[in-house]
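Trying the structure run again after the queue cleared.
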Amino acid sequence: MRLTSALKTVAIGFALSASGVAFAQGGGGGNAEEMKKAEAAVRAQDNVKSLEADPVTKLPPATVPADPQNIWDLDLSSGGRVRIQLRPDIAPNHVERIKELTRQGFYNGLKFHRVIPGFMAQGGDPKGDGTGGSQLPDLKAEFNLMPHLRGTLSMARAQSEDSANSQFFIVLLPRMQLDKKYTVFGRVIEGMQYVDAIHEGEPPADPSVILQASIESDGKPPVTAAAPPAAPAPSIIGTPAPTAKKPVAAAKKPAPAAKKK
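Done. Tokens:
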């Protein structure tokens, strides 16, 4: 009963405050303490309701169920297949762009042209120098609340927020300063060791390559890098030792013929 009475008092106080009248605290110390607790509970409940009602501030789930239609497979020359969970729930247009280019074969053979240790590995540029893109128009930013953690897949862009096209980067270590400045659209769920093995450099002297990019529901088998040709096996037959050549004797001059008398 006392808590119910306190809630009513708080409600009245809010109404008075809204009309410009100062809120008057109750007389008894115990009653005032109950009123403070009740007021805090009401505010907390209001905050929860506002978060639920506002889709902008509502955090997306950290993970989603694995769906082959939204798993991007990258077969890398650095060792094997990387499986990436795409997130159309937070960046639908970016995911659709990746799927479209992938099914065109756009990413096959492209290099990781910018790989910074402890930061990220960037690829998806047909020019291989960070200035290229696809023939499709640039994308409007879909910044979201997903953080740039290890394994996060995010879209590279130029200075304009709406300049993402085909280039992407995979985060090697957390970089929260990138949050809400670049569009996160997925995260590595398997094969991060192959991302760690991508050759470093800006650009790398020997860049790692995307051998094949595919959407997992399309069922393409993994592609592996061709093994370097094996060195010839040593012969088990001994090589005969070279024989010494005998010196050739100088040809003798024929004796002069006897003169006829």
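Strands lie at 71-76, 81-86, 112-116, 120-123, 152-155, 168-171, 184-190, 210-215. Worth checking whether this holds up in the mutant runs.
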